[in-house]
Amino acid sequence: MNRQWTIGALEQLRRDAQRSADTHLLWVDLPGLKGVRLYLKDESTHPTGSLKHRLARSLFFYGICNGHIGEGTSIVEASSGSTAVSEAYFARMLGLPFVAVMPRGTSQAKIDQITFYGGRCHFVDDPSTVYHQAETLARELRGHYMDQFTFAERATDWRGNNNIAESIFLQMEGEPWPVPRWIVMSAGTGGTSATIGRYIRYRGLDTQLCVVDPEGSIFADYYRTRDKTLTSPSGSRIEGIGRPRVEPSFLPDVIDRLETVSTAASLAAMRQLERVLGRRYGGSTGTNFHGALKLGCEMVERGESGAIVTLACDAGDRYLDTYYNDDWLRQQGISIAAHQELLATACKEGRWSEPPPA
Ligand SMILES: *Cc1c(COP(=O)(O)O)cnc(C)c1O
């Protein structure tokens, strides 16, 4: 392995981080939540548009420092989403070929984003085989399979090093309640919730971690049963979160509470957030906001005060033809009206009521 290349590559990654600013922690002012302050860590402002920018950077550091990535190593990933986009960005920066293994039928918009950063897309017919195919392809190319679902939890330094948890707690320092009562996050790889949960323990903080899991995901059942062999054939309809299989990076023991959120509720919350904040985010941000709002109303009901922090994972412009399109919702049979009413009440009066059964 060419040591000079390694040193140069790590230097490139550090310089890219140095040029980047930290992401905003926005205060979502909700007068109905008396005594409760809700904050949104806005991860949509990274150069590649999502929180996967952090993960991709960490995976490259990890791969290079473990000697798996060197000069000319082909990088292979099983992803059709944000991770492939962010990894393609860093691969190009380091002059490495990048291949995303994805199901045939992945939307053209995503393919375009990956190819924009010089990545190549390799299509497979059976979506459940993407992991195996990525591994095989990496072996054939004598390249490196990044394997985000395995390595997300260990590639990030959970003790600090400007990880997302440390950044949140630093930005909270001047607030009325600097140590939030809750942090609310959904799980795709589970890497972000793992980092937050570990950091809370490591620093001895009085914060609880609530993971919100979308309808169709297996994480909720796994959290209850701890049966790693469970699968959910339907899968989640919220892009980026919820998985059909138990991913190795999802760590249930650092999670204090797990809430399931329906597809309709997530998308209603995504739109409600636009009403109160004037910004459009993606579906997983809706899932997060839904969970945060529910916990906020519980605090109001119990007469507690304090802060709740959740994450905006990516921006809404990726979803204008789908989640933000009423015709699309109708075609998909997703009805958000009842949830919208409930969420408007929650924001205005701090009162939570359960929706009628769908
Ligand atoms: C990956 C992703 C998440 C979840 O983050 P993990 O750290 O992988 O659990 C949430 N929202 C979006 C849009 C994502 O791409």
Number of strands: 10
Structural class based on helices, strands and sheet pairing:
alpha/beta
Q: Looking across the biggest beta sheet, what order are the strands in?
A: 1-2-10-7-8-9
Q: Classify the helix fraction into a percent range.
A: 40-55%
Cα(first) to Cα(last) distance is: 58 Å
CATH top level of the largest domain is Alpha Beta
List the ligand species: pyridoxal-5'-phosphate
Note the main sheet.
Answer: 6 strands, mixed
Indicate the CATH topology of the largest domain: Rossmann fold
What general form does the structure show?
A: globular
Taken as a percent bin, the fraction of beta residues is 5-15%
Mean pLDDT: 96
Rg from alpha-carbon coordinates: 20 Å
Number of domains: 2
The low-pLDDT segments are none
